[in-house]
């Protein structure tokens, strides 16, 4: 049994009086590639925002390395969140800065590294994502797939313990999406990190996912959890099967 890295305990999420999901309870193991799945609008991004300290639970708790994220004060929570690397759907690189300058930003903000050390870290991170030659390029001068990888280089600048991705392969062609999956696997292994991903991409889910939770927008709670390949083989819930089989339900035996 792998060691728990993030534990979601009895979590209820709401925007004001609007309930989004209730009674979420699951564990993400160290080294997992954990997929948050479910139909449109069920609350996947909302769950991720709770995990990264942006939204406060209506009820329940999230533990990181066994420590409660919401019981503690803001400063302590920030020290936990610093161990997370986050990439959003758009990549969100700053367009007026080169890739190297984008990666330098978290290093200048959160570390005491010298300019020369920062240059070394930038070179290392760019090399890790296959962009060694592109440090002086601006985001608009490279392809969409390269922008995703550059955003990843920035997310790993501070050697995070957990990497969070919201729809990492959105807008990519299948080959670039596959390369991004390979890169996520490679980074998980080289950083010894845990990965948490919101994605609809079945190919990615089955290729790299090791654990998952399935959120249902109708009952507003989780209806399945576990290895996605195992869920495909064993889960009897028709909504989960519909999702994992791209809408094609198994014929009744
Ligand atoms: N800031 C907000 N205030 C109020 N409601 C919100 C807010 N953000 C999201 N919602 C609502 O919460 C619900 C869940 O949204 P969320 O973006 O988490 O879903 P999702 O599963 O990630 O969706 P998708 O798959 O379409 O990206 C939606 O009904 C959405 O309209």
Q: How do you describe this structure in short?
A:
This is ABC transporter ATP-binding protein. The chain has 253 residues and is α/β, with parallel strands linked by helices.
Structure explained in plain terms:
This protein is of the alpha/beta class. It has a domain of 135 residues: P-loop containing nucleotide triphosphate hydrolases (Rossmann fold, 3-Layer(aba) Sandwich), CATH 3.40.50. The protein is 37% helix and 25% strand. The chain has nine helices and ten strands. It has a six-stranded mixed β-sheet with strand order 6-7-8-3-9-10, sandwiched between helices. It has a four-stranded antiparallel β-sheet with strand order 2-1-4-5, covered by helices on one side. α3 packs across α4 and α3 runs parallel beside α5. It is globular and about 55 Å long. The structure holds adenosine-5'-triphosphate. Adenosine-5'-triphosphate binds next to α1. Keywords: ATP-binding, Nucleotide-binding, Transport. GO terms for molecular function: ATP binding.
């Amino acid at each position: 049994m792998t060691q728990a890295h993030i534990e979601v305990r009895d979590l209820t999420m709401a925007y004001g009086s609007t309930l989004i999901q209730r009674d979420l309870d699951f564990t993400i193991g160290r080294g997992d590639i954990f997929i948050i799945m479910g139909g449109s609008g069920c609350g996947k991004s909302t769950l991720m925002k709770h995990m990264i300290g942006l939204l406060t639970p209506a009820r329940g708790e999230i533990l990181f390395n066994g420590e409660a994220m919401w019981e503690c004060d803001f400063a302590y929570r920030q020290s936990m969140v610093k161990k997370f690397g986050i990439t959003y759907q758009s990549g969100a690189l700053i367009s007026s800065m080169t890739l190297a300058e984008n990666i330098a930003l978290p290093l200048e903000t959160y570390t005491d590294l010298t300019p020369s050390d920062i240059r070394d870290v930038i070179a290392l991170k760019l090399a890790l994502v296959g962009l060694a030659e592109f440090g002086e390029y601006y985001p608009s001068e490279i392809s969409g797939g390269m922008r995703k990888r550059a955003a990843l280089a920035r997310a790993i600048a501070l050697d995070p313990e957990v990497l969070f991705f919201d729809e990492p392969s959105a807008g990519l062609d299948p080959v670039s999406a596959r390369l991004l999956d390979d890169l996520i696997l490679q980074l998980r292994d080289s950083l010894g990190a845990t990965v948490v991903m919101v994605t609809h991409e079945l190919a990615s889910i089955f290729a790299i996912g090791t654990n998952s939770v399935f959120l249902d927008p109708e009952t507003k709670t989780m209806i399945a959890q576990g290895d996605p390949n195992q869920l495909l083989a064993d889960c009897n819930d028709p909504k989960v099967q519909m999702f994992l089989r791209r809408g094609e339900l198994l014929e009744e035996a």
